[in-house]
Design goal:
With 209 residues, the protein is of the alpha+beta class. Helix content is 26%, strand content 43%. The protein is built from three helices and seven strands; from the N terminus they run E-E-H-E-E-H-E-H-E-E. The longest helix has 25 residues.
Length: 209
């Protein structure tokens, strides 16, 4: 039986594939804001400085990295009049050791910030998870393409093109209160959570009939 020669300009099948892989996060990100309020800007900044000085021991814990600091100051309004000034500093933090999250969070909250958001779990090195997600995306695309080829009475030939599509879209036990005097956060359930890495691809295959 003689097969039809593969024509590089012949019919093709184009499919999209999606794959994902989950892995427990091994780093945590926190967003923290400290503010100071006073009648004027100078006093508001001075009050903020006192709060930041009190927070420094918490920010210097092992494994805690301050990625970014953003300072701001503005008038505080009530209805249609200025009632004072507020100064603030937004901190973007990364905790490289998830076993230290409870102690770090307890210390930070104990420093009386205006707001704390997190943790957001991330992967220090997402390469392994990314490769597995890509492998699954290619498998998904191939499975779809094989189904179309069979429906057309043929089979898949050589891969012609592959393009990457954009994707949108974790202790040591603590005492009830640690030595830094922060609140007990053990009951908040802040355990490492799975981080999902997703890959999408578009693949063109030769259709052999």
């Amino acid at each position: 039986m003689t097969e039809t020669p593969i024509d590089p300009n012949g019919p093709e099948i184009v499919t999209e594939g999606t794959g994902w892989f989950e892995q427990l996060g091994d780093q945590a990100e926190l967003d923290v804001t400290f503010t100071g309020f006073a009648e004027n800007r100078s006093d508001a900044v001075r009050e903020l400085g006192l709060r930041m000085a009190a927070a420094e021991p918490a920010l210097e814990l092992p494994g805690l990295i301050v990625r970014n600091r953003r300072f701001w100051v503005h008038d505080e309004w009530q209805t249609d009049r200025v009632i004072g000034c507020r100064a603030g500093e937004d901190l973007a933090l990364t905790l490289t050791d998830p076993t230290g999250l409870e102690r770090a969070l307890s210390a930070i909250v104990g420093a009386e910030p205006t707001a704390v958001h997190g943790p957001r779990w991330i992967l220090a090195d997402p390469a392994v998870a990314q490769r597995e997600a890509q492998r699954r995306a290619v498998g998904d695309a191939r499975q779809r393409a094989e189904g179309y080829a069979e429906a057309l009475g043929g089979r898949l030939g050589a891969l012609r093109r592959l393009s990457d599509a954009p994707t949108h879209g974790g202790a040591v036990a603590l005492a009830a209160r640690d030595s830094m005097g922060g609140p007990d956060v053990r009951e908040l359930g802040l355990e490492p959570e799975p981080v999902r890495v997703t890959a999408r691809c578009t693949i063109s295959w030769t259709l052999v009939t």
